[in-house]
Amino acid sequence: MLGKTRDTLLTVEGKRMALILTNEDVEQVLTMKDCVSVVEEAFIDLGRGQGVNIPRTDVLIPSARSAGLTYYPKIMAGATRRSGVFALRINSDLWADATERMVRVSIESEAQNKFCALVLLYSIDTCELLAICHSGFIQRMRVGATGGIGAKYLARKDAATVGLIGSSWQAGAQLLALREVRNITQVKVYSPNRERRTSFAEEMSKILGVQVRPVDTARECVRNVDIVDLATSAREPVIDGKWLEEGVHVHCIQPMELDNETFLRSNVVVSNVRPFGSTGEYPYIQVFNMGEVSRERQNIPGTPHLSVNWDNTPGLSELILGQVEGRTADKQITLHLNNVGVGIQFAAVGAKVYELAKEKGVGKEIPREWLLQAVQG
Amino acid sequence: MLGKTRDTLLTVEGKRMALILTNEDVEQVLTMKDCVSVVEEAFIDLGRGQGVNIPRTDVLIPSARSAGLTYYPKIMAGATRRSGVFALRINSDLWADATERMVRVSIESEAQNKFCALVLLYSIDTCELLAICHSGFIQRMRVGATGGIGAKYLARKDAATVGLIGSSWQAGAQLLALREVRNITQVKVYSPNRERRTSFAEEMSKILGVQVRPVDTARECVRNVDIVDLATSAREPVIDGKWLEEGVHVHCIQPMELDNETFLRSNVVVSNVRPFGSTGEYPYIQVFNMGEVSRERQNIPGTPHLSVNWDNTPGLSELILGQVEGRTADKQITLHLNNVGVGIQFAAVGAKVYELAKEKGVGKEIPREWLLQAVQG
After folding, report:
1. What is the least distance, in Å, from the CA of A82 to any CA of chain B?
2. Model confidence over A5-20: pLDDT tens digits?
């Protein structure tokens, strides 16, 4: 993926710089078209043994700052040979445990930038730290793109209408990605806040150039559509599986948005990757919990209400490479659990961002020499 | 550990900066005395559930640059509440597979700084990325300090003489640390290169203010000493266990330096931490191997020649807290396997370095705002 950039790195003389790329920088260069393309390649590479993925690692540490605050970093990492990049995504968040579940607490900040989540991009050819990127926009795009790839391989070929639950920044990315893989002609959107879903619909109508219509209930939203897309932060089901119509493709960002009925009615269920071990009810994440934070209060998806056999849920790589069967009939219901971040997504998207940023001269520079040392330690 | 700095971080108005700390910066502020102290605290905290440690994660990726080159990043992470820091150490290395085992390949560099290994320090109170440090000097000091702590709890109280095998930068740190925990009066040093061991002895004599004497054989080096300290990069035994005398404390950086006899003759064997799982012959490290790199050619310690029951080897925390028995008689032989890096070491040492660097105005600054974003993604 580094293409020309890779050669340049190896041959150019003189001072080389590492980039710091803000969300604004990333937004300026990265299109959803490119993003869907490189993320799909990454899943193909992973399936072919040309990529490697490190399970998400969550760490829970009671903060000494005050009771009920938990420091909660998350690490994801992965690489593909094609991208030429090893990526490490590090979220650094505080969660307040005062309410029924933890919520993120912002860093006190003199400016509006209050969250610390970074993607480090290393060259697998030269070992250099190529760039330190804000994670936010990459995060939005890689989740969106992955939803799009699920739909590309699972939705009916003629799928054209979408019922979207959720009106967040992330929900918008889902629509951008679906448009890359299907000829989307109509979208309904529901979220509990009327004002928010209305302004979302207006904004997305303009961006997409297709009608995005706010509706008053989730039930109405998923009626008579080809794709049901759940993109909320809800921790309880947002639809009733009985509402699903034959032939629909369902996508969710986290399984907690689903009820059991949705699982039971789905003919095909695919996750992003196979679990890495049989270590619990949700074996996608390694958790190192120093304190007393209960599982329910963690942001770790728990799905005790769902009768899912995680060990038998294949990953996108297998679906794309035809190693598992996808949709085999128009009336089937398909389900994509876009439920856990995969390090290779950051490698693929990060490499593309880096390539484009170098091409276009975007980003702040710091001397590479600052990040290198004379000893191996 | 952040002490005053912690308060400052939380209350000061105006622009805040993240630090970039080079090895030279770290060397300028960090003493072995401080290092032994904070690393010991970290092991105590880990044992008391006030610290958390993420097993070392190794990733092997065949480089696309040329056949026989393997990109090999390593990740370690950990935190203690006392330090206030979550640390992430990332090595980014290329290894050449052309010889019988892999060796590190340097980054092409216009300067002498050719290696990329960094420690990221995050505040567990504010989530901020406090600093990005070169890893080299911290690495040297934390390994040295940990050897010293092992000797503090396992060597005879009157231990005063050392036989050191190895004359590297790391070997020197062992002596600095041993001096912090025992009244060292004499040191012998052996390494295969006569010139090197001679100049090492001269240099360390001056630094320590005690006689460091080069000797011609390993056999002679370990004769009639209280502490046998192995600090080499050898991948086969460098001493014969039959040479060990009653009452000696043995330290090694990696078990491959030892023969079976040393294990069999040791009354007490302690590692840095207990293994995290029963996943193989050396269950301290999680390995994600994308390619065809054989175990022998990896830098992952393999100990097929040693009859060690890793599951029954306690960690330093247990020893320090008295949860396992250490030396109970002067004539016993004790053995400390300082064999795997522990994330909390980087948190403890990193926090100390950060505190001192802030105090003394050391380091390059980059605006904290560059590393923060407005969204949570």
Report:
1. 8
2. 443 333 333 467 899 9
Interface of A with B in 49-68 (CB under 8 A): 49-54, 57, 59-65
- Alpha-helical segments (H) within B12-154: 23-29, 32-47, 136-154
Burial class, B322, CB count within 10 angstroms (exposed 0-12 / middle 13-18 / buried 19+) = exposed
Domain(s) of CATH 3.40.50.720: residues in chain A: 155-281+296-337
Selected residue of A92, A114, A125, A140 to mutate for chain B interface (largest B Cβ count, 10 A): A92
Q: Hey, is the C-beta of B140 within 8 angstroms of any chain A C-beta?
A: yes
Residue of chain B whose Cα is closest to the Cα of A78: B59
Which whole-number Å values give the CA distances from B179 to A331, B68, B142, B207, in the listed order?
76, 43, 15, 11
From the options 1.20.1280.170, 3.40.630.10, 1.10.1740.10, 3.30.1780.10, give the CATH code of B15-138+343-369.
3.30.1780.10
Which chain B residue has its CA at the smallest distance from A92's CA? Answer: B127
Nearest CB among A114, A140, A290 relative to B374 is that of A114
- On whether the CB atoms of residues B363 and B357 are closer than 8 A, the answer is yes
Tens-level pLDDT at each residue, chain B (377 residues): 444 444 333 333 346 789 999 999 999 999 999 999 999 999 999 999 999 999 899 998 988 777 778 888 999 999 999 999 999 999 998 887 644 444 566 666 656 778 889 999 999 988 899 999 999 999 999 999 999 999 999 999 999 999 999 999 999 999 999 999 999 999 999 999 999 999 999 999 999 999 999 999 999 999 999 999 999 988 889 999 999 999 999 999 988 899 999 999 999 999 999 887 655 556 778 888 886 555 555 555 555 556 677 777 899 999 999 999 999 999 999 999 998 899 999 999 999 999 999 999 999 998 888 888 888 88
Q: What residues of chain A score a pLDDT lower than 70?
A: 1-15, 97-111, 277-282, 291-307
What residues of chain A lie within 8 A of the CB of B114, using their CB?
372-374
**Rounded Cα distance, A59 and A91, in Å:** 10
The tokens for A25 are: 């920088």
- Class of the domain covering B156-278+301-337: alpha beta
- CATH architecture entry for A3-7+14-138+343-369: 2-Layer Sandwich (3.30)
DSSP label of A244:
P
Of A169, A372, A377, the CB nearest to B375: A169
- Return the half-sphere exposure (C-beta side, CA atoms, 13 A cut-off) of residue A42: 36
Whether the CB of B371 is below 8 Å from some CB of chain A: the reply is yes
Instruction: State whether A376 and B132 contact (CB < 8 Å).
Output: no
- Which residues does A2 contact at the CB level (< 8 Å), separation at least 6? A9, A83, A84, A85, A123, A125, A351, A354, A355
CATH 3.30.1780.10: which residues of chain A? 3-7+14-138+343-369
Considering only the beta carbons, identify the residue of A10, A79, A290 that sits closest to B59: A79
Nearest Cα of chain B lies from the Cα of A278 at a distance, in angstroms, of 13
Comparing CB atoms, the residue among B51, B81, B113 nearest residue A369 is B113
Q: What is the pLDDT of residues A259-287, one digit of tens each?
A: 999 999 999 999 999 887 655 556 778 88
**The pLDDT of residue A17:** 86
Residues of A in contact with B119 (CB under 8 A): none
CATH topology of domain A155-281+296-337: Rossmann fold (3.40.50)
